[in-house]
Amino acid sequence: MVHQVLYRALVSTKWLAESIRSGKVGPSLRVLDASWYSPGTRQARKEYQERHVPGASFFDIEECRDTTSPYEMMLPSEAHFGDYVGNLGISNDTHVVVYDGDDLGSFYAPRVWWMFRVFGHRTVSVLNGGFRNWLKEGHPVTSEPSRPEPAVFKATLNRSLLKTYEQVLENLQSKRFQLVDSRAQGRYLGTQPEPDAVGLDSGHIRGSVNVPFMNFLTEDGFEKSPEELRAIFQDKKVDLSQPLIATCRKGVTACHIALAAYLCGKPDVAVYDGSWSEWFRRAPPETRVSQGKSGKA
Fold this sequence. Notes:
It is an enzyme of class 2 (transferase). This protein is α/β, with parallel strands linked by helices and 297 residues long. It is built from 10 helices and 12 strands. It has a 5-stranded parallel beta sheet with strand order 1-5-4-2-3. The longest helix is centred in the middle third of the chain and has 10 residues, at 109-118.
């Protein structure tokens, strides 16, 4: 097996603070606030406008998605993604650092990290500890809007990192890939409802294994060490030497599985973009498992 040199998936708050202090934010280094919150809770863009990491732009995941899809957070086209990030001053040569303001330390940032990778961009990192720890450690913030000079970003979809409904359905027969679901246990089992979901019962895809993404984070909001991450996968009998598909409700926290595996030296985890929100609406009933009222999701 050839071991490729992996780009650093995490950068520290100290490293980013020093990079900002030394004036490195610009065409070669861009910072993105990728916060998103459930409607009626926090307002991500408003919070960004009030305070953010100096030089950071707001990455609106509601804008940078396939808005024509009936499913929740499907990838945009190559052209849409390229135009969107190009307008944030990002070229194919830019090192991109992504963070969010979630209380967990990280929630949506790994989704944007994966989006860059699935569109062919290697030099992207998540801010370890997120905005929560940036603030806690007393690093500078600003309300000043960021106005980066637009750049040209050519997006090239890496289909090996993305799985479709048809591919996951075929995998139920072939079992070539392990299927790992990152949602909380109750939602996976079908004993707790999907939050803010209309017409979407909880449950899981037959044959999937549950590894809740919160397990990858420390109480302080940092990513656990590669040794701890490996132990989490091993405990659930997930073999990191074998192919793996990550799934969740809408393709967001599945990216935490991709990130955790990457930190263990496995960069090839594919994400099922439609995840449960698509599977529940399209898949045959016998492929949907739930311990809820009806027994089948």
